């Protein structure tokens, strides 16, 4: 049976269609679920094997990006969410979804309600939409199995994507191998702090992290925007192999098929 | 309970990008260098809750201690002299006063708090209210958010005043907060409906009534007077306002419908001619043209795509951020309100301004500086499109000195829907009238009539209420809800509430039947609105629906599930009347026939003004590299990439050809290709063309150029000309006899283009008020603008073409017909100070053959890269292609052409094409005018030869830097 994927929506979610399509391509069975349906009990997170929080501007990103939805999740859906994670089910937050996972406390420390990192306004002071290169690190992340050590290309599109945290938390993330994606220089393949290769000034060039189990992933770039060959801006210049977003979603579906 | 204040700022060791960015602008734009740094803080105010609850909000919602700190009911940015100078209000502006003993490093010289004016809806307030409820906080009556700026350094009060007026505070919607407000709750008493004694008014009194709010002429005022004289009563304020709105130029296009006398000879109305050309073209893909909120054509698989392009010049001129936002919001609703509803898949933006380095003393009274306008308009389009999740991926920017009083702001939107839902719905008797979306406030009163009037030095004062701040999330959730209702077949008819608000929306929906509205049922933002204000308000993010009584409960449920307010406020009737009630009072009763057809048709006179014919013959440039560099840095040629980067042009995962591509990702493509249906290889293509400079020099040939350029942009990316349709936008000075003559010429060009190519216009809009009248009577007319947008389906998005050169050693061929001596209106002539009235003349008879040859070549997969010739000419096109491929090129100019004209002529409808070799070029383009120019190479130079001898070579890197510089200076990195 195909794993059931909950594509969580709310006011201002806007990368839901493409995230839905990416998971369907990867073999998942997707359903769009509005947060109101979880609040009312019309849908329950327990019915799904994978949770995806797509990009967008939930509630306009008022106060902080993803903040209002985070407050809603930690105030009213805390139990459902913690049960879902405790059951070992994969969770992915992309862009606004990453901001939500960090602001709920699920990333990096898996402590719902306690914020230990943040995504600040880009150093450039403005929204940034461009294709960037990402180095995939060795990590426990189940979404990037088999991709470690490679450099992929995704698009970023955000105004608040600078990963920032205190020295202690940062050291903890790095020592436990929770950094999954780093902004990289296309020539050297190494992590970079140089704008615009690193489009937001993230500490240690961090573009995406997982929790200690590797089953909760958050990243600023958009893998769901590269699941067809023609999504890449320069596909006309030559073959880049399988679209770089596909393996990420396929790994999650495979994981759910084998383990859940 | 007192108002609670929470202030939040970043921790001292964390940077403040908002402050840094503002500081950059202050230095580069205002030339003020006395500020060392700027610290910003957010200020949140709450009414109705305790300090304990405010603290909970601060900790759980407002401040994140990872990088921020907060204060409760206390200042957060320390100001020099606050304590030692004794009890200064934290927002008091201080000059260079030194208050002994204070450390200057941690204290700002000046602190300024900027907030929206009371009554201007702050979108953030609703989110705060929601989060507070989610946190279990009750009793919160109102919330507000504003921003504090602490200026550190030796800045003076006078400098801060300059910063406030020129950058921080737009007095139309914002204010500097001087003291803690007593209440955040807006209260008011509903005003009574007034009777306007129109029957007893003489002509002077009628015109006095019209001035500044109704914008009707004497004939129209007399028609209203005579209607009510016959009825034997005087109208209510609501009735007069309804007529003024429905009859406004903005809504009814009086000029385009007028009988014309052109140079003494009668001519059919402009709109009739455009519509006739469309009818004659009988394009097989057109499903709906000129009747709905947008034009619709077939896609594949029983789907349809639609397009609409709008202007928002008047609001953007006085409040560019809000004006641009609501412009985008409005055109998106046009798509959402087409047929039974469409999903918006793309957004476009075309702007005209005065040069951003315009000296401040040349900005006319009552107008805003073009650099400020440009930055704020871009910010408005960015914030609305990005938040709605609509990719903004096609646009352009044009500069001319005569846009210094009034800019031209054009925004477009495109959508997709089932073909079965493409036709406009028609309400039936008994259907319920439903208002959906945002609440109604005093926003945008008189927007329609205001947009129809000339702009004057008084405009900013008198019409301040005509602008508001858009709320993109309100519109996004409304779109989500309406698409669900459409898919469940619950919608009989829908339209957007744009100019004229409910009056326009329900007035038009009920035109053929009748409608009865109960305004007291409409949800309002705050009390105190007069009934006519509710009726005419142009509050954004609202739509009007007709649904059957049986479907109403389900529609209301779907809306509630999406956090969208929906309210039944009336019913459709068979009375043929527009009836509006407020509680028991009937405040409006007008015959639909009079409302929609009672407007006297105008007869307007157009007279050709003889323009002096001029033709300079400048000598060739002494320094070719210098000339090329200046061309690339010309404002109408230079890279607009910094703007595209702040728009999310990849959302929806549909992009198959982005606005910028090529190796470094910063070479421009001519159009945008989308695959909006996931998993399907078919898609759509969007492009446009416009050139105000040419329109000013020659309205007929300038307009032909715009249409040819629009289609060339589409064809250069691989479009099939047979699948393309057009949208017209005329943005013109007030139509006096001369401007009307120019307009008549432009419309002739459009219809000639349709007749020659078979591509019909299926939607359009005119905005004929871009004239500014100064206090001393001086007049500034904008250069006339015809923007032609072009869109259509694409059979296979993987058979489309980008502009970046693919490899060294391939052949470059120029395809298309041009006379290089037609240099009038070119960037080159402007740079060298030459003048000519000989503008490029598009060769209509051969144009379709050129389009077709390019398309066939693309379809065969033999075109490696293609770029159309436009501003900057062949040289600019070649340079951009080389940037994208990181290549060079060798080009040979024929001996019989002037080299500078050959390189810099701007004739549209010509293409620079990269193919594998010369033989391919000869084969592909045998039937049309073409010339093999040379080869690409792997050098870093563009080398130009005249016959066998080298004329000059220029480094592509030099051109690239020149090309990138102007907009980077405006927008930062």
CATH architecture call of chain A: 3-Layer(aba) Sandwich
Globally, the shape of chain A reads globular
Q: What is the C-alpha radius of gyration of chain B, as a whole number of Å?
A: 29 Å
What is the top-level CATH class of the largest domain in chain B? Alpha Beta
Structure description:
The complex is a heterodimer of chains A (260) and B (973). Chain A has 260 residues and is an alpha/beta fold. Chain A has helices at 16-25, 35-40, 67-76, 78-86, 96-104, 167-175, 246-259; strands at 4-9, 29-34, 50-53, 91-94, 117-120, 128-136, 151-158, 162-165, 179-184, 206-210, 216-219. Chain A has a 9-stranded mixed sheet, with helices on both faces. In chain A, α1 links the parallel β1 (4-9) and β2. In chain A, α3 packs across α5 (96-104). The model of chain A has no long low-confidence stretch (mean pLDDT 97). Chain B is an alpha+beta fold and 973 residues long. Chain B has 4 domains: 4-176, 2-Layer Sandwich (Mth169, Chain: A); 198-253; 308-603, PurM-like C-terminal domain (Phosphoribosyl-aminoimidazole Synthetase, Chain A, domain 2, Alpha-Beta Complex), CATH 3.90.650; 801-973, PurM-like C-terminal domain (Phosphoribosyl-aminoimidazole Synthetase, Chain A, domain 2, Alpha-Beta Complex), CATH 3.90.650.10. Helix content of chain B is 33%, strand content 24%. In chain B, a hairpin with an 8-residue loop joins β27 (672-674) and β28 (683-689). In chain B, α12 packs parallel to α16, α21 runs parallel beside α31 and α24 (699-716) packs parallel to α27 (847-859). The chains are: A alpha/beta (260), B alpha+beta (973). Chains A and B meet through α1, α3, β5 and β6 of A and α1, α2, α3, α13 and α16 of B.
């Amino acid at each position: 049976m195909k794993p059931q994927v909950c594509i969580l929506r709310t006011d201002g979610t806007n990368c839901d269609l493409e995230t839905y399509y990416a998971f369907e391509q990867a073999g998942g069975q997707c359903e769009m679920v509005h947060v109101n349906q979880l609040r009312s009990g019309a849908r329950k997170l327990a019915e799904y094997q994978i949770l995806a929080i797509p990009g967008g501007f939930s509630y306009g990103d008022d106060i902080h990006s993803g903040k209002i939805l985070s407050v809603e999740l930690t105030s009213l859906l805390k139990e459902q969410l913690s049960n879902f994670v405790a059951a070992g089910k994969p969770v992915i937050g992309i862009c606004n979804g990453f901001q939500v996972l960090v602001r709920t406390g699920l990333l990096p420390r898996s402590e719902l309600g306690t914020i230990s990192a943040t995504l600040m306004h880009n150093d450039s002071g403005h929204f940034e939409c461009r294709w960037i290169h990402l180095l995939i690190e060795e990590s426990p992340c189940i979404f990037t199995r088999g991709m470690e050590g490679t450099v992929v290309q995704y698009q970023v599109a955000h105004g608040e994507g600078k990963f920032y945290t205190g020295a202690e938390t940062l050291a903890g993330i790095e020592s436990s191998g929770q950094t999954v994606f780093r902004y990289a220089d296309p020539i050297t393949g190494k992590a970079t702090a140089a704008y615009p290769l690193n489009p937001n000034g993230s500490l240690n060039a961090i573009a995406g992290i997982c929790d200690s189990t590797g089953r909760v992933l958050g990243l600023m770039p958009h893998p769901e925007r590269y699941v067809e060959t023609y999504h890449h801006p320069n596909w006309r210049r030559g073959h880049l192999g399988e679209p770089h977003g596909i393996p990420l979603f396929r790994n999650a579906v495979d994981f759910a098929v084998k383990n859940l | 309970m007192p108002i609670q204040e929470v202030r939040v700022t970043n921790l001292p060791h964390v940077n403040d990008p908002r402050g840094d960015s503002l500081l950059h602008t202050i230095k580069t734009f205002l030339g003020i260098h006395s500020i060392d740094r700027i610290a910003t803080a957010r200020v949140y105010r709450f009414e109705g809750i305790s300090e304990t609850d405010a603290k909970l909000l601060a900790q759980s919602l407002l401040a994140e201690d990872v990088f921020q700190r907060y204060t409760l009911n206390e200042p957060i940015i320390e100001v020099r002299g606050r304590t030692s100078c004794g009890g200064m209000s934290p927002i008091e502006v201080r000059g260079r006063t030194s208050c002994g003993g204070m450390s200057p490093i941690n204290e700002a010289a000046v602190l300024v708090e900027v907030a929206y004016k009371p009554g201007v809806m702050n979108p953030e307030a609703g989110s705060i209210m929601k989060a507070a409820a989610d946190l279990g906080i009750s009793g919160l009556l109102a919330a507000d958010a504003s921003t504090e700026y602490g200026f550190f350094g030796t800045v003076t009060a006078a400098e801060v005043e300059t910063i406030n007026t020129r950058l921080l505070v737009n007095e139309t919607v914002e204010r500097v907060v001087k003291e803690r407000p007593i209440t955040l709750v807006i209260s008011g008493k509903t005003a009574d409906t007034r009777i306007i004694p129109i029957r007893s008014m003489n002509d002077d009194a009628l015109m006095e009534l019209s001035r500044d709010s109704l914008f009707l002429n004497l004939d129209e005022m007399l028609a209203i007077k005579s209607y009510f004289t016959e009825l034997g009563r005087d109208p209510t304020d609501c009735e007069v306002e309804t007529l003024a709105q429905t009859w406004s130029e903005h809504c009814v296009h009086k000029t385009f419908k007028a009988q014309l006398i052109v140079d003494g000879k009668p001519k059919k109305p402009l709109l009739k001619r455009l519509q006739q050309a469309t009818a004659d073209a009988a394009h097989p893909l057109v499903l709906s043209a000129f009747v709905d909120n947008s034009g619709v054509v077939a896609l594949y698989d029983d789907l349809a795509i639609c397009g609409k392009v709008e202007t928002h010049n008047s609001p953007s001129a006085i409040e560019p951020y809000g004006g641009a936002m609501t412009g985008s919001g409005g055109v998106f609703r046009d798509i959402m309100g087409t047929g039974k509803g469409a999903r918006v898949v793309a957004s476009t933006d075309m702007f005209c301004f005065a040069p951003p380095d315009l000296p401040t003393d040349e900005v006319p009274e009552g107008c805003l500086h073009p650099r400020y306008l440009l930055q704020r308009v871009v910010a408005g389009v960015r914030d609305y499109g990005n938040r709605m999740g609509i990719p903004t991926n096609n646009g352009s920017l044009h500069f001319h000195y005569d846009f210094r009083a009034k800019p031209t702001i054009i925004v477009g939107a495109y959508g997709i829907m089932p073909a079965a839902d493409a036709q406009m719905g028609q309400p039936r008797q008994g259907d319920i009238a439903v208002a959906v979306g945002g609440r109604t406030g005093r926003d945008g009163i008189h927007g329609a009539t205001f947009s129809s009037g000339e702009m004057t030095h008084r405009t900013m004062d008198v019409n301040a209420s005509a602008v508001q701040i858009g709320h993109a999330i309100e519109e996004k959730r409304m779109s989500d809800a309406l698409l669900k209702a459409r898919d469940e077949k619950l919608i009989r008819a829908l339209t957007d509430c744009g100019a004229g608000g409910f009056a326009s929306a329900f007035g038009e929906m009920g035109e053929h039947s009748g409608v009865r509205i109960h305004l007291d049922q409409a949800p309002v933002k705050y009390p105190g609105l007069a009934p006519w204000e509710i009726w005419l308000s142009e509050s954004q993010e609202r739509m009007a629906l007709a649904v059957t009584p049986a479907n109403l409960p389900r529609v209301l449920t779907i809306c509630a599930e999406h956090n969208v307010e929906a309210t039944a406020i009336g019913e459709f009737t068979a009375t043929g009347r527009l009836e509006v009630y407020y509680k028991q009072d009937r405040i409006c009763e007008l015959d639909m026939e009079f409302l929609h057809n009672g407007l006297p048709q105008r007869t307007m006179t157009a007279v050709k003004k003889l323009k002096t014919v001029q033709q300079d013959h400048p000598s060739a440039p002494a320094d070719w590299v210098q000339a090329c560099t200046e061309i690339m840095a010309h404002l109408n040629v230079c890279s607009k990439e910094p703007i595209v980067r702040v728009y999310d042009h990849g959302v929806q995962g549909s992009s198959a050809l982005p606005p910028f591509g090529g190796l470094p990702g910063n070479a421009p493509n001519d159009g945008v290709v989308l695959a909006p249906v996931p998993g399907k290889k078919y898609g759509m293509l969007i492009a446009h063309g416009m050139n105000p400079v040419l329109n000013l020099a020659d309205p007929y040939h300038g307009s032909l150029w715009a249409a040819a350029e629009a289609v060339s942009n589409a064809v250069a990316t691989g479009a099939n000309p047979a699948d393309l349709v057009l949208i017209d936008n005329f943005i013109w000075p007030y139509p006096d006899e001369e401007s009307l003559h120019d307009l008549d010429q432009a419309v002739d060009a459009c219809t000639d283009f349709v007749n020659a190519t078979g591509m019909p216009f299926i939607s359009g809009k005119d905005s004929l008020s871009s004239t500014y009248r100064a206090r001393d009577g001086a007049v500034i007319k904008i250069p006339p603008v015809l923007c032609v947008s072009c869109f259509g389906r694409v059979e296979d998005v993987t058979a489309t073409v980008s502009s970046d050169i693919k490899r060294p050693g391939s052949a470059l061929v120029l395809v298309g017909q041009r006379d290089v001596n037609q240099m009038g209106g070119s960037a080159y002539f402007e740079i060298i100070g030459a003048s000519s009235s000989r503008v490029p003349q598009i060769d209509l008879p051969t144009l379709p053959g050129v389009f077709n040859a390019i398309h066939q070549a693309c379809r065969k997969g033999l075109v490696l890269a293609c770029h159309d010739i436009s501003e900057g000419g062949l040289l600019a096109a070649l340079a951009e292609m080389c940037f994208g491929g990181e290549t060079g090129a060798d080009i040979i100019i024929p001996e019989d052409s002037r080299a500078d004209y050959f390189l810099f002529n701007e004739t549209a409808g010509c293409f620079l094409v990269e193919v594998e070799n010369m033989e391919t070029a000869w084969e592909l383009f045998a039937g049309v005018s073409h010339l093999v120019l040379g080869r690409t190479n792997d050098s870093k130079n563009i080398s130009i030869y005249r016959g066998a001898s080298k004329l000059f070579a220029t480094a592509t890197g030099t051109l690239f830097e020149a090309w990138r510089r102007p907009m980077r200076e405006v927008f930062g990195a």
